Amino acid sequence: MNSILSLLNLFLVFQSIVFPGEKTYENPETLNIGIEQANMEVQTENVEFLIEDINEAGSLTKRYMDEDNILHTVQIEASPTSDISSSNISLTRLANKTYTIRYIKDASASSSFKIDILSNKIQRAHSSSVTLYKGTLSDSKLVRISSTKAQQTFNQKLLFGTRKYSITATVSNGKIVVHAIP
Fold this sequence. Notes:
Blueprint: H1 2-15, E1 22-25, E2 34-37, E3 45-50, H2 51-57, E4 59-65, E5 71-78, E6 98-105, E7 109-118, E8 121-132, E9 136-146, E10 149-158, E11 161-172, E12 175-181
Antiparallel strand pairs: 1-2, 3-12, 4-5, 5-6, 6-7, 7-8, 9-10, 10-11, 11-12
């Protein structure tokens, strides 16, 4: 009997712990203490990179903090060689190159993939890589959705649920726009 009471007490203590992304509630009509998953809006971020700047620098990195003070890093790197001379590249056209898109969510996950660009169009999306610092990886895929969009998706299975990631690269008007949904 004591072991059952101990387990029940442990369960009630566990139920009163608040985990990140969750909120507690108290209902005076209910005797149980519980945890309610918050229906929070998923934060997304669009990070724009001018192709001219990427080609000039070779690599550009942008960082942002979300509302939970978690650091997100997006980096685009141009391949060191080009099929056409840089004097023939207009400001609104992408160089015929391979660009590596990297996304890092501080101390949680990092991913990368490459897109091959020819005449302002994504010809191929390839070389997908995902590293998780916690949890296990599932359902990882990389697809070229259209000639202007490629998307990498994967799931991070954690002890108390699954976090879905989607990193989309869109080519438009001399820019690569990376849209991250962590």
